[in-house]
Amino acid sequence: MEAKSSLDTCQGILVVPYKAEQLDKPPSETIFATTSSLTGPRCELEVRTWLDSPISAALGIPLKVTNFPSDNSKLQNKLAIPLFLNVDPEDDAFAKVSYRYMDGGVLLARQDGEKLDEKHVVALLAYLNSLSEVMVEHARKEWEGDEERKEQAKVLAEERLTPYAFMAFFGEYQASMTRACEPGWEKVNAPI
Q: Rounded to 5, what percent of the chain is helix, strand, coil?
């Protein structure tokens, strides 16, 4: 049997949402998901409909996202929604979600075809979860005028929507996961 080359396969990270009770955790507002690395035939994955994630690209990890069959296919994947936050401070829709219909499992892969590390995805989703609150607050705020909104959007984008901001978060997150004795975090290379 002939071995498949890396050109014949595609690698991504599958993110599947769960309810707290499914993972033997106390019920709360916390979003739970499992992540796992997935490698499959490139031809099967390329025929899927992929959506680009503008925020992940702004943070230095250009991702594409697609629905993927999994358990809990009717459960909204709340971790995937922030991947579609509008990051253009000049756009009236800045800080709003452009796509909300991600139910069940979602498969994330790099747009550039590079290997995607599961721990990088976990850290990215944690960053987006914390960033979502700031972005939603910006989107809902009543501004004095369009210029003030755009100016504050630019400040937010310059401070939080950069590879440098994500790398600072990643360093802190990696250190906290290592201190919590989560396996493998001490050996993870920086994502960018």
A: 40, 20, 40
